[in-house]
Amino acid sequence: MIQKIDLFISIFYILLILLIGLWVGIRHRNLSKKNEAKSYFLAGKSLKWPAIGLALFATNISTVHLVSLAQSGFDTGLLSGNFEWMAAFTLILLALFFVPFYIKSGVSTLPDFLEKRYDRSSRDWLTFVSIISAIIIHIAFSMLAGGIVLKTLFGVNLYVSVIIICVITAIYTIIGGLKAVVVTESIQTVVLLVGAAIICYACYQKMSGWSAMVDVLKHEQQTIKLSMLRPADDASAMPWYTVFLGYPVLGIWYWCADQTIVQRVLGAKDENHARVGTLFCGFIKILPVFIFIMPGLFAYTLAQTGNLDLSSITSVGANGEKLVDSKGIYTLMITQLLPSGLIGVLVAALLSGLMSQVSGALNSISTMVSYDIYARYNPGIGDKKLVLVGKVAAGIALVFSLFLLPLLNKYESIFNGLNDIIAHIAPPITCVFLLGIFWKGASATAAKLTLWIGSALGAMVFIINKIFTNTWISTIPFMMMAFYLFCACIIIQVTFSIIYPVKHTVESETLYWKSWKSPLAAKGWAGLGNYKTLSAVLFITMAILFYLFR
Q: What NCBIfam families does the record point to (predicted)?
């Protein structure tokens, strides 16, 4: 349980974010009366690169990451860092190849882009999948992680605490729109990073430095925890080749084709701001390994030396063995390693992660429901009605997410549960987007069939794994399953593109790259701010980091 001062800091922070979100959103809309819908959903196309980069990071990093990455650091060491650092390569792909089409086409949503490149059926299916994934992946999992932390710290019911925080978040998100979301996300990112840095420093000091941690790992014969690229026979079921084959399938969907993430890019002032903001996020993604995962690894070594008491999260198994519920390791570090006052700051950081993730997802859901569903059946609808529909949709999505919490709580690892679901959703979407912008021959009929058949395959495999746990399918790591499903989708789309040849429209003719050199044709800003320079620096930096922690 935390002290009154920590509770005060937490409540003050929540109310401050609420007031800032409301003020920014209402003020922006009052200044943008000419196009209320664009102002609400896309911030009036006014976002600059710092806000875009910070908002992308904030929408990605939620309480799920703070809690689950610390858990994975405790359980498997730096292994889950692959998801953070591989994201940088995917963001380079987004900046170089996807952003120009998104900005040039002037779309409000990614399903809208898919219609311009393919047809209406593809748009409808992506809208449906994107809304469902936003509810499950971006909202419900964040609620679950936030609820676990708040329950441990405050002793309140998991559902009560989550409902209160999410209702407050929904108020400024629904009223203020994307501008309110991006500004509050930028603030929350700073708070989140400061809080994570504090707990990392506290763990480091308690452990007496890096060398002391390495000595403990050597003594426990666990130096493999310092390695991110594991051998083929590693017990983690995530050896190095699964990272390089499976992650791009997940990452391209998540960073390049998921509305909740890419909406920050769609609200960019221009192409350069969109590209540089995306790459800025890529550089920030270096941090999570050190400030989110590393504390969990420090916690493991502290526990081995008796400097961290695990009794509150330890139970006795059927055979008398001790079972540690590592979901609560982050909360344990906060309460045992930090003084009162700083605990309140860490709680504020955790709340930042929860609120930013939920606000971003709600805004994206409202945008897709308004533009991709309601406006389709009600052409010529006024801005006020469009915004109202979006607000109602966000409220319904929030309520629906709450009902999913008991189901998702059955996963032993929150982070693995999250990626397990993504692995079965992503392959067909990644396929149609990649082939759509890189291959002239990708046809609309083939894209539609790939989305339908690929999604059905993913759902079928997922259900089989959950019902029949002893089949050969259940032995395939989820990263490799994503790769196999992606390969199947490639075969499906290429085959049907040959059977049903493409018939380009005037618009779709401009939405694929004629040559690999085309993405680099735009000069960009001069100096270090040039997107080509930044892409090269980011790529080299990540290659060096992977080599050092191989």
A: sss
DSSP code of residue 379: T
Name the token pair of 238.
């995530």
For residue 324, report the phi and psi dihedrals to the nearest 5 degrees: -100, 120
- Give the integer Cα–Cα distance in Å for 6 and 344: 4
pLDDT (tens digit per residue) in 437-480: 999 999 999 999 999 999 999 999 988 887 777 777 777 888 99
Quick: pLDDT tens for 45-77.
677 899 889 888 877 777 777 788 888 999 999
Tokens in use for 384? 């006020």
Distance CA 386, CA 416 (A): 37
Which tens digit of pLDDT belongs to each residue from 74-92?
999 999 999 999 999 999 9
Instruction: For domain 4-23+38-308+330-411, give the fold.
Output: Sodium/glucose cotransporter (1.20.1730)
C-alpha torsion 287→290→293→299, nearest 10 = -150
- In one-letter notation, the amino acid at residue 465 is N
Average pLDDT of the chain to the nearest whole number: 84
User: What is the DSSP code string of 76-93?
Assistant: HGGGGHHHHHHHHHHHHH
CA gap 86, 317 in Å, rounded: 37
> Going along 262-390, which residue ranges are E strands?
314-316, 322-324
What's 396-449 look like in SS3? HHHHHHHHHHHHHCCCCCHHHHHHHHHHHHHHHHHHHHHHHHHCCCCCHHHHHH
Cα–Cα nearest to 264, from 141, 372, 374, 109:
109
- What does the alpha-carbon distance between residue 176 and residue 331 come to, in Å, rounded to a whole number? 32
Q: How many contiguous H segments (helices) and E segments (strands) does the chain have?
A: 24, 2
Cα gap 13→21, rounded to integer Å: 12
**Lookup: tokens for 380:** 């010529």
**380 in the Ramachandran plot: left (φ > 0), alpha (ψ -120 to 50) or beta?**
left
Residue 187 CB coordination number (10 Å): 19
Coil, helix or strand at residue 340: coil
